[in-house]
Write a structure and sequence with these properties.
The protein has about 150 residues and is mainly α. It has one domain: Double Clp-N motif (Orthogonal Bundle), CATH 1.10.1780. Helix content is about 65%, strand content about 5%. Strands 1-2 form a two-stranded parallel ribbon. It starts with a strand and ends in a 5-residue tail after the last helix.
Length: about 150
């Protein structure tokens, strides 16, 4: 049985759509999800990013540099579709949720999935900002160890 998404994840996805529109994109990419986690600001994913010194300004700067270097493949079907990387991140977030034995997919699962999705803009931005899957996973475990969800 698949876990449900938390209300916070629904808000992150909504913000990711808004951020994609701010960037004048016809798709939602991993970079938009990453910025949305930080902008939403109340989840464990945002807490980990802030703990690691990631600000929206630094993150936008890094993403903007990466986007200039490459144009991601996109699908255009009318409303903002997800890129292949975005779809992989959602699937990986569900796996991370299950591995961590959580009841619902939360921002920390999205953040871990973004770090795992090699080749995506978000993965490159996080790597360039010095974050690794191991240290973020350790931060997530530390922050969730007392949680009773």
């Amino acid at each position: 049985m698949l876990p449900k998404s938390s209300p916070r994840v629904a808000e992150v996805i909504k913000l990711a759509n808004e951020i994609a529109r701010e960037y004048e994109r016809e798709y939602v990419g991993t970079e938009h999800v990453l910025l949305a986690i930080l902008r939403e600001g109340t989840g464990i994913g945002a807490t980990v990013l802030v703990k690691r010194g990631v600000t929206e300004g630094k993150l936008r700067e890094e993403i903007d540099k990466l986007i200039k270097k490459q144009m991601e493949e996109t699908w255009v079907f009318g409303r903002l579709p997800g890129t292949p990387h975005f779809k992989n991140v959602v699937a990986t977030a569900i796996q991370q949720c299950q591995q961590l034995e959580s009841k619902e997919v939360c921002t920390e699962h999205l953040l871990l999935a973004l770090l795992i999705e090699k080749g995506s803009v978000a993965h490159k931005a996080l790597k360039n900002l010095g974050l690794t899957p191991a240290q973020v996973r350790a931060d997530v475990l530390e922050l969730t160890s007392g949680r009773s969800e």
